[in-house]
Amino acid sequence: MSVLTKTFRSKSGEHIKHSRNINNLMEEITVRSHHRNEMIDITDMIQQQIQKEGIKQGVAVVYVPHTTAGITINEGADPSVQRDLITTLNRLIPKQGDYHHAEGNSDAHVKASLLGSSATIIIDNGSLVLGTWQHVFFYEADGPRTRKIYLSLLSKVNNA
Question: How far is C-alpha 119 from the chain's CA centre?
């Protein structure tokens, strides 16, 4: 358990200290990609962890500790959206280019940097707060590989 402390100023300028006890549960999720570029929907994996821990209100931080993979939120109802994202990234950032990195995966580093390595999602009433069509995706840019995703679930102590 961590203690989150924040200092506020009142209208009169005096400092007011506010402290809340926060649960921080860390989970490691393993995913296996099957293609060099691939989007894997991890929404259900995250939601299952939230339900397993009984979290009603809080925040989920999804983080990938790899330089050639990313996390993004986008439409999950129509698989052609994922295909379009991959196709567009490959067109904009081709595998072969004027790269200086010697490992042959420079494009993967650029794609991962553009997508980002994390997403923060609100949890309310025991569920991820996502738009109607939104899902959370792991983006593989240099597969196939086995990868780790870290999930940090932050919630108030005695959250029931």
Answer: 4
- The number of helix segments (H) and strand segments (E) in the chain equals 3, 9
Q: What is the CATH number of the domain that holds 136?
A: 2.60.120.460
What separation, in Å, do the N-terminal and C-terminal C-alpha atoms of the chain show? Answer: 16
Of the candidates 81, 89, 136, 80, which has an alpha carbon nearest to the alpha carbon of residue 109? 89
Domain assignment of residue 7, yes or no: no
The model carries a pTM of 0.85
Q: Can you tell me the distance from the alpha carbon of 155 to that of 157, in angstroms, rounded to the nearest whole number? A: 6
Please tell me whether residue 111 adopts helix, strand or coil conformation. Answer: helix
Q: Confirm whether 129 is domain-assigned.
A: yes
Binning pLDDT at 50, 70 and 90, where does residue 23 land?
confident
Residue 36 has pLDDT above 50, yes or no: yes
Tally the domains of the chain. 1
